[in-house]
Amino acid sequence: MKSRTCPNCGYKYSFGLHLRKHFFQNVFSNWNCKNCGALLTVDAKRRIILAIVGIAPAALIPYLASYFRGYYLAIEHAWMLAIFLVLTWAVFVFSFDRFKLVEPAKTTPGEEPQKS
Ligand SMILES: [Zn+2]
User: Fold this and answer.
1) What distance in angstroms lies between residue 72's CA and the mean position of ligand 1's atoms?
2) Whole-angstrom Cα distance, residue 107 to residue 109?
3) How far is the CA of 50 from the centre of ligand 1 (A)?
4) Distance, CA 36 to ligand 1 centroid (Å)?
5) Nearest residue to 20 via CA among 34, 35, 36, 39
6) What is the distance in A from the centroid of ligand 1 to the CA of 108?
7) Which pLDDT score, from 0 to 100, does residue 113 have?
8) How far, CA to CA in Å, does 64 sit from each of 7, 77, 89, 104?
9) Does 2 share its domain with 17?
10) What is the Cα–Cα distance from 43 to 2, expressed in whole angstroms?
11) From ligand 1's centre to the CA of 91, what distance in Å?
C-alpha cells in the first residue's frame, strides 16, 4: 500500500492537503475520502513507527546547535536552525503516513480492534 493513498479508490492525497487535514487534528480520527467517500483512518501502527523516527532526532538538537556554532552562528540562530531542521524532518517523515479503510466491525464499542 502506498503512503497517503486511499485504499479504496487509489486517490493520492497531496502532501499539503494531508498536512492540513491530518497533522493538526486528532491523529486517530476518521474522515471520508475526498474522492470516493469511503471512511478512512490513519494506520496507527505505522503512525507510531513514524512518530518515533520523526521525534528521535530532537535528542540531537543540542549537538546540531553546537555544530552550527562552529560556523560562527549566534547561539540563538544555531538553536533555531537545529530546531527547524528537526521539525522539517518530522514533517517529512509524517508524509509517509498510510491510510486504512475503517471497517464497521472495528468500530463496535467494547471490542478490541482486530489487527490485520
Ligand atoms: Zn477514496
Assistant:
1) 50
2) 6
3) 23
4) 4
5) 34
6) 23
7) 55
8) 39, 11, 13, 47
9) yes
10) 12
11) 23
Label residue 102 by pLDDT band (50, 70, 90).
confident
Assess whether 62 and 76 both reside in one domain. yes
Query: What's the 8 CA to ligand 1 centre distance in angstroms?
Result: 5
Please tell me whether residues 34 and 61 are part of one structural domain: no
What's the pLDDT tens digit per position in 40-86?
888 888 888 988 999 899 999 999 999 999 998 899 999 999 999 99
Number of domains in the chain: 2
Global pTM exceeds 0.85: no
Chain length of the chain: 116
Domain hosting 34: range is 1-43+98-116
CA of 76 to the centre of ligand 1 (A): 45
